[in-house]
Amino acid sequence: MDAQTLTYIFVAFTFSVYIGIAIWSRAGSTNDFYVAGGGVHPVLNGMATAADWMSAASFISMAGIIAFLGYDGSVYLMGWTGGYVILAMLLAPYLRKFGQFTVPDFIGTRYYSSTARVVAVVCLILISFTYVAGQMRGVGIVFSQFLNIPIFWGVIVGMAIVFIYAVLGGMKGITYTQVAQFCVLMFAYLVPAIFISMLVTGIPIPQIGLGAEVIDGSGLSVLEKLDRTLIDLGFGPYTEGSKSTIDVFAITMALMIGTAGLPHVIVRFFTVPKVSDARKSAGYALLFIALIYTTAPAVGAFARINFVDTVHNAQYSQIPAWFKSWEDIGLIGWQDKNGDGKIQYAPGAPFQGKPTFSDERRTDGSREVTNTTTTNTNEVYVDRDIMVLANPEIAALPAWVIALVAAGGLAAALSTAAGLLLVISTAISHDLLKKTFAKGINDKQELFYARVAAATAIGIAGYLGIDPPGFVAQVVAFAFGLAAASLFPAILLGIFDRRMNKEGAITGMLAGLVFSLSYIAFFKFVAPEMNTADHWWFGISPEGIGTVGALLNFGLAFVVSRLTPDVPKEVVAMVNNIRIPKGVNKPSTH
Amino acid sequence: MNDANNDAYWKANIKLMLILLSIWFLVSFVFGILLVDTLNQIQFFGFKLGFWWAQQGAIYVFIILIFTYTIMMQRIDRRYGVSDDDTEAETAQKEQEEEVL
Questions:
Q1: What CATH number is given for A3-35+44-303+398-465+475-578 in this structure?
Q2: Is the predicted pLDDT of residue B22 greater than 60, yes or no?
Q3: Nearest CA to CA, how far is B3 from chain A (Å)?
Q4: Using one digit for the tens of pLDDT, what is the confidence trace for A261-316?
Q5: What do you get for the CA distance between the two ends of chain B, in Å?
Q6: Å between B46 CA and nearest CA of chain A
Q7: Which of A191, A235, A450, A452 is the most exposed place for a label (fewest CB within 10 A)?
Q8: Taking the domains of chain A in order of start, what are their residue ranges?
Q9: In chain A, whose CA is at the least distance from the CA of B44?
Q10: Separation of first and last alpha carbons in chain A
């Protein structure tokens, strides 16, 4: 069977499993819908959190980004794992003890203020929507590359699946589907990685293979070979970075505390039975995430070696089929600058912007690129997102591995999309309606509105995925900075600073959000030509500015809270109560 | 439950947390970022040591830190009598369930 038929079979099979689980675990109450009844086993919750967390970006893009950034890619590896340490020690257990449904719930109750609640809802929706649009796009790309379905229909199918299990099952359906999706995506990530590690180094464990000798007789280790090859081609060495230390520091910190402040991650810890389970569950989640995150740098390094070996100085007419198929959908572009019919790979962009093609083909079958060429010797444009998806083909692995990777990419994108859509719908039905603007509604009505909100959110997310306004892809990475600068400090202070009052928290959240948003908007949209280290404040890029936003949030919140009225007694009692595990209840329905 | 006991519990929690968070900071920000060039002079099985901390080592330590915190906290919870797995909590939980049903 060819790869495409196998892909259809794998995808159809996994999708029917997801739907089966959704029907089996329908939600009967808001308690089920919001927090899966509060009875999820910590190991299962760890898997669900891992699937929720690992998005299309982790699965599809991360190893590719690392392959091209080398050491600088470490910011994602440390940033997207270190956040769980903060989550386990500083947030998850206390929020579980608090025992309500949502993040704005905590902020609204702790800061005894509907304004604080609404500000939190605004932060949450802003963060989650930018994130979810990227997931739907990921679904579209996988469908179009592997199943030859136009992106539009790919996104529609994805929306339909998420609709079925998120709207029917709520958190309960999502949790158990995510457990299944975790298994699919982990298998799909590790199998090709093991194969490739075997091919390059002869060692089946990629984490060890990354430090092993390459089996080409050169006696060099993977990283030495990579360093030398890249230096020969004029790049900087793979194992050394080009970003400034302060920027690497700021980006890593922003990603870590941003992770801890992401509402769809936090809410997963509301679903376990006890406070101690919330701690345990964060540990399991990180263990499962680390399986993939420690493999990714190996995949990235192997991919870069294979890419250079296959492409550099290769005659186009003899190039493997994967190069041509990605060229066909425009994610690879080749401009034969010196007219020798061979592909030369070197630093710098081969031409300005993403490739645009004329309808003509050159005589060797390659696509004519119409962009203005640059003066360097690099002739090939390659989209970083394709490395993981193309890896099995580059390494000439069997067709079933390729099909598996497609199913894994879909699992990663769908599980994250579902988690995000759930927190959006909950914030609307629970925090905006039930707790703020429509206080009289009963449990049934609230559940109905939650489903309506979920369905609407899926529609909007799908629209953004099919027709992404230019900014969506860029903004996804900034969701972390926004979470770091707005929600994280407010939650942390709510637990650890008994004297933090509503005035301080609201000022802090708004200042952090507005500051980071303006900084990002300025460098990305208003004056993109100024987006260089010379113009950044303290040399910190827009990706890392969330760290400064968080500091601003903490500082302002502290000063304002000490100058304004004290926290009411009952709130102090509540803070004292969430600090001790004893007496934890299931999240109550109310 | 009394306030003095709870305060002592909280102090023990904060102390443990600060120790573990210092290690968290050390392996990622210090080894992986601030001292990376210095550590890269040292070879560690086929890796430059600083690079290994940044792309592998820090993550392994993170996992150990969370499980250490989980286990140590369970002990501290019991020592101060605030653990969540005593029978009292379970009874309360059952009552809650019955109310919901």
A1: 1.20.1730.10
A2: yes
A3: 9
A4: 999 899 888 888 889 999 999 999 999 999 999 999 999 999 888 888 888 888 88
A5: 30
A6: 4
A7: A452
A8: 3-35+44-303+398-465+475-578
A9: A211
A10: 55
